[in-house]
Hints:
Strand content: 15-25%
Number of domains: 3
Helix content: 40-55%
CATH topology of the largest domain: D-Maltodextrin-Binding Protein, domain 2
Order of helices and strands: HHHEEHHEHHEEEHEHEHEHEH
Low-confidence stretches: none
Radius of gyration: 23 Å
Mean pLDDT: 87
Number of strands: 10
Strand order of the largest sheet: 4-3-5-10-6-9-7-8
CATH class of the largest domain: Alpha Beta
Structural class: alpha/beta
Amino acid sequence: xxxxxxxxxxxxxxxxxxxxxxxxxxxxxATVARRLSALETDLGVKLVDRRTTGSTLTAxxxxxxxxxxxxxxxxxxxxxxxxxxxxxxxxxxRIGAPDGFGVAYxxxxxxxxxxxxxxxxxxxxxxxxxxxLSRREADIAITxxxxxxxxxxxxxxxxxxxxxxxxxxxxxxxxMPESAQELKxxxxxxxxxxxVYSTALAYAEEIDRAFRPRFEIASxxxxxxxxxxxxxxxxxxxxxxxxxxxxxxxxxxxxxARSYWLVLHESVRDLGRVRVVADFISxxxxxxxxxFA
Length: 293
C-alpha cells in the first residue's frame, strides 16, 4: 500500500470532498482522483462513493480509515524522532476553542509559545460550534463536555463559573433585581437557543426557568459586549466579567458550574508539535487556576 496514496485517501475522508482534499494538499483535483483510484485498485476494493454533493466512505473505507490514521501517526512520530527536537516543534497546530476561552484567555498567552519555538505556527480558531477532530478541522479542541465516543483522548483543564452580570449604567437606570423571578422585569441578554451546539451551553434555566433573553447573541464575547454597553443583564463567564470594573455581579447566589476539557484525536496524541502545544495549554491553565475559581 503506497503511503502517498494513503495520504490522499485520508484527506478525502476528512474533508468529504475531492476538491477540498486537493486544496488542502496543494495538488489538483485530477491528481487526487487518480491517486485514490490507484489505492482502490491496489487494495481491490472500493473505498469512497463519489457523488456530485460530496464523497462518503464505504464500509471498506471506514475500516481503512483507522489503519491509515495509525500509519500516519507512526510516520509523523518517526519524522519527529529522527529529525530531533527542533522538528518536533515545527509545523502548524490548529486549536479550536469556544470564543470566550479562545479569545479572552488563550489568545493573549499563546504568543509565548511561538516565541519559544520559532518554527511553530499556531492557528487559533474561536468557533461558535463544535470542531471535528476526526475530520482534522483542528488538532486540539477545547470543549465544555468530555467526549464519550470516538477515538479521542481528553484531559480536564479546569472548572469555571458563569453568573449574572450587568453594567453599572444599566443598574443605575433599571435598578438591582432582588430575586431571579424579578429578571422577567429587566432587559436580558443571552444565547441563540437553536444555535447552541452542546447541552452544557444551554444553562439559562439553571438560573430561572422563566429566563428568556430579549437580546440573543450567538457568541459569549458578543454577549459580554452587549451587557457592558448597558443592554441588560446577562449570564457571563466570570473569568471574563471580573476583569471589567464596569460590570457588577447580580444575584451572586445564582452561579453555574462548567468545565473545560482539552481533547486530541488519538492519532496525533504523540505527535511532537501537538504534544508541546497541548502541554503548554494545560500547564498555563494549571498555573492560573485562580482566574477561573
